[in-house]
Specification:
Oligomer: homodimer
Low-confidence stretches of chain A: 1-16, 357-364
CATH superfamily of the largest domain in chain A: Response regulator
Radius of gyration of chain A: 27 Å
Largest sheet of chain A: 5 strands, parallel
Number of strands of chain A: 10
Strand content of chain A: 5-15%
Mean pLDDT of chain A: 89
CATH topology of the largest domain in chain A: Rossmann fold
Structural class of chain A: alpha/beta
Distance between the termini of chain A: 84 Å
CATH architecture of the largest domain in chain A: 3-Layer(aba) Sandwich
Shape of chain A: elongated
DNA sequence: TCCGCCGGTGTTATCGCTAACACTCTAGCC
DNA sequence: GGCTAGAGTGTTAGCGATAACACCGGCGGA
């Protein structure tokens, strides 16, 4: 059926073969360069020719070869997302946002996961995506591994970053355009203020592993405390991002009757705290208030329903993609501001905390 | 520095350019075909030549061009994962398993999400991945959209499928080798038996949207009931996979004092049921037992901790990849069997259910 | 001793497309 | 009327690799 190419199936059924640009050209009665112009939307093509070519394309079921395109132009129309744990809600949603935007733009999305934040793993991942011919890269810099990868990325690969807060303080101004991020500090501050306004003397903070030594959430939390004249307790750093670590730490933390409000680094941690409170016989929010971050879909159905900060992760992903492709655009893709969602897990500070721990004075 | 190619940066800094196979060849003093043989592990290359070529590769920082390879060989070393909702735990984990296996094999992973199970969306997605030159495809057939896409996939694209149960009953035997799946029926049966053995007269079932009219979980659940001589209640079909739909349905279902055990289609739904029980003043497991599916990381920290069926999703992903690439291998990648994890949400059947609904006789 | 096989290597022809340049023709200008 | 500008199209030369084939030498068997 088609004369060019090795696109035909190895055995028989020539109908399944793929048409090349030349087949289209001869069917349309133009040179194959004109076909190339049409599929690339070049301006200087007569309407008549464009029509003929498009008809031929439809007739033959022609599909441009990504490989040939990439080879001839020197760069693939693709973006690789570098991420460390794509099962976490925020990561998965961000990836989804990127994919959505990329799909609309006709650009392929590849993924590459970072095994850990160890130097060799980061280096291997960066090496795997550092070929500028393979297209652009978006780094999910929510954690240390991502932040390191981003730093290690060679300057000659087009890239942008999605992060929960701006990590490029020391970067030149021009580089800022490569970042999509939330104002994490203000979000944390608002959540803390919410608790303070409920009458809590202070707010304890269980943190997620940060990209930096002092995360921006921690900064906002501290700012709220200081400006309210509240004491600033030591930050708790459980192991990892998960529920288990926070649960374990909370089991110790909540024994202290002075602890009446806990701001957690994410919803999973908050769930661990809720469970720890339950284990200790404490009521939420009567004895202790809990706030999370992220607003995972299940958060509204926890018992009690979780007060948390909602992030527009999908929007973040779309914006990161947008920054990559249309840095010229007057306005990058819109991004909802983080918003505190008040549910059941926060309430007025208790006059006096109840629960069995009040009587349990055996712990130090 | 390098003489061939347009790989150099547009302006200056030739050191950043990319070496081509020819540069390597001349540096090693061999023909570029020999270089090709070395990077493709062809057998007939002398150890000496191989050594020289590898040295030159390291020296020049040579990296093969994926595009050129794909163009010349006719097929890209890539696999595209077709998935409908990559934020759900099982999907994300499976994707992670695929990525892990693909990374080890040096194969790129791309993703393409299915917007919905509407015919046009499915067709568009399938169209987007049906170019055999773009590499293989793995379909996540956990839902109707995935199952439809898999059916619509042309025979000439290499593909495999990951599913929660085997959907290819009517497929020819050879096609079965393309499937990675769990024995969902047995898993559901075991979970149901667990509840029956606790003394529950029957088990109600809240289902997730199935790929087929009668899901395999439903089949296993029914089998257990029938063989125990227990009545088979009508299956509840909430809207979607989420917590909200299950919560809403459970609010109605649990009003019936005869309902003492609920088997949910996934952990999110189970959370909705737990919350509904709480809303109705019912205790779990004293009044009603709840079982989920998936064992999401948070399940062990719900209040009460959820009894659920654990699935090895990452293993499923690895196996799906394995089936695609090494169908020759004597043994596909190992896959853990689904396993019931008993925690706090299941307990002996109540003699008589308590809770305010017992007195609330206003509902029909 | 001659032949043929085969390990090891080089040569040639594509793969399907884009980019740069060349060419033709018409319209608009002085 | 001659000239130029520019729209519209065709021609040519790669992009960086793979595959098929050709070639060359040494070895073992007849």
């Amino acid at each position: 059926m088609f004369v060019t190419g090795h696109n035909g199936p190895p055995d028989g059924d020539p109908a399944a073969a793929t048409a090349s640009i030349r087949d289209v050209a001869s069917a349309a009665g133009v040179s194959y360069q004109t076909v190339s112009r049409v599929i690339n939307n070049h301006p200087n093509v007569s309407e008549k020719a464009r029509q003929k070519v498009n008809d031929a394309i439809a007739l033959l079921g022609y599909r441009p070869s990504r490989a040939a395109r990439a080879l001839a132009s020197g760069v693939d129309r693709a973006v690789t997302v570098l991420t460390s744990n794509n099962s976490l809600f925020g990561y998965a949603e961000t990836l989804g946002g990127i994919e959505e935007a990329a799909r609309a733009a006709g650009i392929q999305v590849a993924i590459r996961v970072l095994e850990s934040d160890r130097a060799d793993d980061v280096a291997a991942a960066v090496e795997g995506v550092s070929d500028p011919r393979s297209g652009a890269v978006i780094v999910l810099a929510f954690d240390r591994a991502g932040a390191r990868a981003l730093r290690a990325l060679p300057a000659n690969v087009r890239s942008s970053a999605a992060a929960e807060s701006y990590l490029g303080r020391r970067a030149p101004a021009a580089d800022r355009d490569r970042w999509a991020w939330f104002d994490d500090t203000i979000a944390a501050e608002q959540a803390t203020v919410h608790l303070l306004e409920l009458g809590h003397k202070t707010v304890h903070h269980i943190a997620i592993p940060s990209t930096t030594n002092v995360g921006d959430r921690q900064r906002g939390w501290k700012r709220a405390l200081v400006s309210a004249g509240a004491p600033v307790p030591e930050v708790i750093h459980p192991h990892g991002w998960g529920t288990a670590g926070a649960h374990q730490e909370a089991l110790r933390l909540l024994r202290d009757p002075a602890v009446t409000a806990v701001l957690c680094g994410n919803d999973d941690q908050a769930l661990g705290v809720i469970r720890a409170a339950h284990d200790l016989g404490l009521r939420i929010p009567a004895d202790v208030s809990v706030v999370g971050f992220d607003d995972v879909p299940a958060a509204g159905f926890y018992t009690p329903a979780l007060t948390t900060v909602r992030f527009d992760f999908a929007g973040l992903g779309r914006r990161a993609f947008d920054l990559l492709m249309n840095s010229q655009a007057p306005e990058p893709a819109p991004l909802e501001k983080p918003a505190l969602v008040v549910r059941e897990s926060t309430g007025p500070a208790p006059l006096r905390r109840t629960g069995k721990t009040t009587s349990d004075k055996d712990d130090r």
